[in-house]
Design goal:
It is a single chain. The protein has 151 residues and is mainly alpha-helical. It has two domains: 66 residues, Endonuclease III, domain 1 (Orthogonal Bundle); 70 residues, Helix-hairpin-Helix base-excision DNA repair enzymes (C-terminal) (Endonuclease Iii, domain 2). 55% of the residues lie in helices and 0% in strands. The structure holds iron/sulfur cluster (SF4).
């Protein structure tokens, strides 16, 4: 497992955490599964997930959204950067902006906002030198205005 995880970085740590998670799931549910979380409330599932080794609020939100289909919005660096540039109210870091950004995006748009912000952040809305001239959402964005860009 460690060998597989090494290319993503922190292979040894992640492998150890995954083994601990497997043990914790087996202890709680009798087998290695997340299926029982679908019967929990969102708050209960989030609380259980963040009790697992190495699982922080963002990872828990990702599991809630991708696996359990809850209408939450995990805020990573791309979501945070795009939200800030669009003019949503944010704080300095993704983790401290989680609640602000999530509550500003309607539940039915959160999944789409998350996946599209990541794709956009990797291709056009780059951290340095965003490609605003090619951006399809240019006219809704505050960033070029604030920077005085002409496109
Ligand atoms: S206009 Fe520029 S800063 Fe705004 S979303 Fe598009 S690429 Fe990002």
């Amino acid at each position: 497992m460690e060998r597989i995880l090494v290319p993503g970085g922190l292979g040894r740590l992640k492998a150890r955490q995954l083994v601990s998670i497997v043990s914790a799931l087996r202890k709680r549910f009798g087998t290695v599964t997340l299926a029982p979380l679908s019967k929990m409330t969102q708050t209960e599932a989030e609380s259980f997930l963040t009790s697992l080794p190495g699982v922080g609020p963002k990872i828990a939100k990702c599991v809630l959204m991708y696996t359990l289909k809850h209408k939450v919005l995990p805020v990573d660096i791309h979501v945070h950067r795009l939200a800030t540039r669009l003019g949503l109210q944010t704080k300095k870091r993704p983790d401290t902006s989680q609640e602000l950004i999530e509550s500003a995006v309607p539940p039915e748009l959160r999944y789409s906002f998350h996946v599209n912000a990541i794709a956009h952040g990797r291709t056009l809305c780059l951290s340095r030198r965003p490609k605003c001239g090619r951006c399809p959402i240019f006219k809704w964005c505050q960033y070029p205005l604030n920077r005085g860009s002409k496109h």
